[in-house]
Design goal:
Number of helices: 4
Order of helices and strands: HHEEEEHEEHE
Helix content: 25-40%
Distance between the termini: 21 Å
Radius of gyration: 14 Å
Structural class: alpha+beta
Strand content: 35-45%
Length: about 130
């Protein structure tokens, strides 16, 4: 568990279990931000947020291009309540990691995510949590 997720208040943890969408921000190779709506899962014990996507999407390519210094930020909003999860990001096509992400997604959203042949998972190791009104 990361320090950031260990210190997360119970209300914020509960908020992150609700099946809301979020926005994912990544950085393009030329340095500009790319923000896109996503569904994601939050794993407090591992200190990870996970997003499944196709390998060729801009978000996956941004993370891959960033290498070990790639970062991402997920922001889940409901009215004037929100939580942002920030940290180092990595993209993986490892079958075990992708299957775990699909299982967690299915549990959270009560349906499986799309299953294209090039499915990957973006994992964000949470280093910072920001929130309001939780």
């Amino acid at each position: 568990m990361s320090r950031a997720t260990a210190e997360l208040p119970a209300a914020a943890r509960a908020f992150l279990t609700r099946p809301h969408a979020a926005t994912l921000a990544t950085i393009r190779p030329e340095g500009t931000p790319h923000v896109t709506p996503v569904r994601f899962t939050f794993d407090a014990a591992a200190g990870l947020a996970r997003v499944t996507t196709r390998a060729g999407t801009r978000k996956a390519r941004n993370v891959a291009a960033g290498g070990p210094t790639a970062h991402g930020a997920l922001c889940q909003v409901d009215g004037f309540r929100w939580v942002t999860l920030e940290g180092r990001a990595a993209v993986s096509d490892d079958d075990t990691r992708v299957a775990d992400a699909v299982r967690r997604y299915t549990d959270r959203y009560r349906m499986a995510p799309p299953a294209p042949p090039d499915l990957v998972v973006i994992e964000i190791s949470i280093e910072r949590v920001l929130s309001l009104n939780l």
